[in-house]
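Problem 12. The chain below contains 308 residues. Write out its predicted structure in token notation.
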Amino acid sequence: MNYILYGLLLVGVFIAVKPFLMYLMPTRLLDTEKLNVFENTKLFRHVRSMMEALNATQADEKIRKKTMLLIGVSGIISLISLTFSIACGFGGLGILLCLFFTLLPYASCRIKLLNQQISGSYEGEILITEILNQYKINHQNIKEAIDISIGCLDKTPVSKKLLFRLSLRLKTCRTENELREILDTFAESSGTEWAKMLALNIFYAVSEDTSISAGLEDLLKECEHAGKMIEHSKRQNNEAFVMLKFLAPAFYVGLMWSLHKYFEMSYPEIILFQFNTSMGALIFFSAVVLTFICGAMASVAKRPKFDI
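Solution.
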């Protein structure tokens, strides 16, 4: 009965990810209409927005291919891990492990994006100052101000990358809805309130040709005030990250040594137990999952996001 259930799950997973596995095929072999349908799904749009934020300086086609690859690889990992769980007889916990490994590529990209957003959040004051100065110099032409600001933001790599993407898309924008979508993507890629306020100012400057000097100055003051507050209350806590990085492997090696010394198991027997039995494999993969989760939490928590 268990094998029938796992078989049905395997078939269900394959059917679910089959449309995205098709993206790994050459484009000339695919139906263009089906491609358009898949690219309009919420899953594809969500993953694409994440990949766009991570690869803002790359062409749309490259971002599209990376989106296809991420979803396709996740589908393949899902099939492999589910098959492995069935073969090892992990039971219900095997499904959870399968889900973890399936989401691992997405989670890795998501953590990378979050770290990028945290780093970029500290660039707000420099970015807004530069845009405001160029906006005044270029006779309140916001598009020209953005273009020139890109070349002056060498100390703010994240903001420079996002602003470059924004500049390219503004040049091809034709409707107000497109403009809203472009600025929403910029704000979401930054992941900060100051970026949302900056996007709102840019929207009024482009769509209504309204002067936004006062709005940018107020936003700059808010960022300066927030920066002073964060510098006053910020607490760097790298001890937990260091402990996790160095002690987790040490504990694992210590466990192997303890099994050898106190349970009189040879190292080949320990390795066979670890990878050749369902219990040993389950313990190993559970340790990997918990270590990854703790590492992800420590990586995100060691530096707070700067925001207004």
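Discussion. The chain has three domains: 2-119, 124-233, 239-301. Students who got a different answer should revisit the alignment rule from Section 12.3.
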